[in-house]
Amino acid sequence: MLSSSCVDPGAKQTHLSQGHEEEIAGINTYITGQSKSAIVIFTDIFGYSFINIRKIADRFSEETSATVLIPDYFHGDPVNPNLPNYRDMMPDWIKRHPTTETCAIADKFISTIKGHYQSIQVIGFCYGAKAVVYLITHPELSSTIKAAIVGHPSRLVEEEAAQIKRPILFLCAETDHAFSPDLLVHFEKELTENCLGTFHKYPGTVHGFITRPDGSPQVNQQSEKAIQDAIEYFKRNI
């Protein structure tokens, strides 16, 4: 079950996208920037066309000088917040997009692009965090990923913490039913002991605050801080 904050699109944003779309491994992909270093974004339930995520992608590319790619791993079927009853449709949507399929698409996508870039980093927001953790626990693909970030993650389980093989930054909301305090403590303990994990926490925020801030000054400020923290982390690991 997704929490209410998982399905809240946040305050309306505007942005003129700077990139283009092309097909990679049979997956429609938004691409912005041109570099031999790549950042791959695995989105929340609102998908790769959601203007908020394209705005973030363009900013990542501009400030890190990396190529940023957003695969459409929902195959043209993201959650559409413009439908009046979209919240009622969530159970069926989740059945159509199990995390096993999400991880399989992430596997296919990274396997396809890995020979084209000198370094690859990944970031996943909410639903997309599962794909990121899958990649950095994978016995073969993990070595392809230089570093990873998850922002207000969901669908993670305790067992994954001990399996993580690459450096990872967690951008955590203060209140997050999708990443409970107990789960956060478990991941933090496991990943600080082996020096793979870094954890940033943002006061006055709830799940979704980075990609879908509610427009309030406090949340906008913390969203901006988290985006900047992600940019600095990417720059250190390119």
* Strands side by side in the biggest sheet: 1-2-4-3-5-6-7-8
* Overall 3D shape: globular
Class in CATH?
Answer: Alpha Beta
- On the 0 to 100 scale, the average pLDDT is 96
Fourth-tier CATH superfamily name: Alpha/Beta hydrolase fold, catalytic domain
Largest sheet, in brief, is: 8 strands, mixed
Helix share of residues?
25-40%
> Which spans have pLDDT < 50 for at least 5 consecutive residues?
none
C-alpha Rg (nearest Å): 16 Å
* CATH architectural name: 3-Layer(aba) Sandwich
Class computed from helices, strands and strand pairing: alpha/beta
In total, the number of domains comes to: 1
Separate helix tally: 6
Instruction: Summarize the helix and strand pattern as letters.
Output: EEEHEHHEHEEHEH
| Strand portion | 15-25%
Distance between the termini: 36 Å
Q: Which fold name is given in CATH as the topology? A: Rossmann fold
Number of strands: 8
GO molecular function, one term: hydrolase activity
Pfam families: DLH (PF01738)
Domain Dienelactone hydrolase: 33-236
Organism: Rotaria sordida
Can you offer a commentary on this structure?
By secondary structure, the protein is α/β, with parallel strands linked by helices. It has a single domain (29-236), classed as 3-Layer(aba) Sandwich (Rossmann fold), CATH 3.40.50.1820. The protein has helices spanning 51-64, 90-96, 99-113, 129-137, 181-193, 217-237, and strands at residues 20-24, 27-32, 37-42, 67-71, 119-125, 145-151, 168-175, 197-206. The protein has an 8-stranded mixed β-sheet, sandwiched between helices. Helix 5 links the parallel strand 7 and strand 8 (197-206). The radius of gyration is 16 Å and the shape is globular. The relative contact order is 0.16. The mean pLDDT is 96.
